[in-house]
Amino acid sequence: MADAHFHLFDFTQSSDGLAAAVEAMNEAGVDHAMVNGMAVCKKWSSWDPVEPKYYLDDDSRVYPYSATDFLVHAQVMSLPEEERRRFHPFICGFDPTDRNAVDHVKRMLALFPNFWQGIGEIFTRHDDLTALSYEEPGRANHVALDPIYSLAAELGMPVCVHSDVTSVWETQNLIYLSEVVEALRKHPATKFVWCHAGVGRRLVVPTLVQELHRLLAAHKNLYVDLSWVVYDEYLVLNGQPRSNWLELIERFPDRFMIGSDVIASMTSYVSTMTRYYVILDALTPETAAKVARTNFLEILPKANVTAAAPTTRRHSPPDR
User: Fold this and answer.
1) How big, in percent rounded to 5, are the helix, strand and coil portions of the chain?
2) For residue 256, what are the contacts with CB-CB under 8 A and spacing of at least 6?
3) pLDDT tens digits along 2-22
4) How many Cβ atoms from other residues are within 10 Å of residue 94's Cβ?
5) What does the H/E/C string look like for 286-313?
6) pTM score, whole prediction
7) For the chain, which domains are there?
8) Do residues 12 and 68 lie in contact, with contact meaning Cβ atoms separated by under 8 Å?
9) Taking the C-alpha atoms of 27, 29, 34 and 40 in order, what is their torsion angle to the nearest 10 degrees?
10) Rounded CA gap, 176 and 50, in Å?
11) How many other C-beta atoms can be found within 10 angstroms of the C-beta atom of residue 19?
12) pLDDT in tens, 116-162
């Protein structure tokens, strides 16, 4: 299998490390994995006596953490070359509402050429994480992301975006779906991987399968990541895959992929990846092979990529 969604670091930028990841991948039958850090860091506020480890542990904020990309690079490069080739690093350490965010992506590409293979996970609409973020919420169609999407298309890189279709208080109206649709329409050459099929904690979307069918038919650049809550709350019921989901995947066999969405700790990695067997066994062998492995590998750049660093801005001194 290939793991299309793996966070090497958690919300405090801690990690079990890639050596532990390699062991867990070997046990789970995973030979390739996307690897990214964690785009935000959880603040330990003065009023909290216990350090939070997860973004939901308390009400303190999270903030963009660009150093996570440097940490990913250091970890990957510490591996022997044969193990290093199994990991496909993605850039994620930028503020998705900052119009200068593309400069960070370009700097990473220039600093570590022929290393990065994708962008994301980009946090836009994301249940309580949005409320814990500073300033404006991220949006899949935010103006700050347009140059990043364009750069990704130019370099043949996929972009992983977390964008909930709605909020916990709007279960009937998909109030944020239009943001994803606008990004897809505006950037048809960009390969978008929609993390968790657009759902998150406490989101109830009865029409999710129908919406995915409509979007996949309309947008050839859309791919769907089946990790995290979409598995437990939509794909599988009482240990059995739901027939409408199997039909959807068979209808679009090249557009779905699986992922662990494990965050730093490898204790649950094997069980998280092997749970997909129940879905893969229910698909045709051809579709199962694509969903399990080749769909993810096919969206990666066909060659190592790099890009020019952002132009250094030179400002005139203020008038005296």
Assistant:
1) 40, 15, 45
2) 223, 224, 226, 249, 290, 291, 295
3) 999 999 999 899 999 999 999
4) 26
5) HHHHHHHHHHHHHHCCCCCCCCCCCCCC
6) 0.92
7) 2-299 (3.20.20.140)
8) no
9) -40
10) 35
11) 12
12) 999 999 999 877 767 667 778 899 999 999 999 999 999 999 999 99
Overall residue count recorded for the chain in this entry: 320
Strands (E), the chain: 2-3, 6-7, 32-35, 40-42, 62-64, 87-91, 118-123, 158-162, 191-194, 222-225, 236-237, 240-241, 256-257, 262-263
Please choose, from the candidates 3, 82, 12, 72, the residue with its C-alpha nearest in 3D space to the C-alpha of residue 36: 72
Closest C-alpha to 220, from 244, 252, 178, 179: 252
Sequence-ordered list of residues with C-beta below 8 angstroms from that of 312, at least 6 positions apart, any chain: none
**Helices 146-155/177-186 angle, 10° precision:** 50
Residue with tokens 């044969």: 82
Distance of alpha carbon 181 from the chain centroid? 17
User: Cα(136)–Cα(117) distance, rounded to whole angstroms?
Assistant: 28
What average pLDDT does range 242-261 have in this prediction? Answer: 98
> Residue 102 carries which side chain, given as an amino acid letter?
V
Per-residue DSSP letter, 57: S
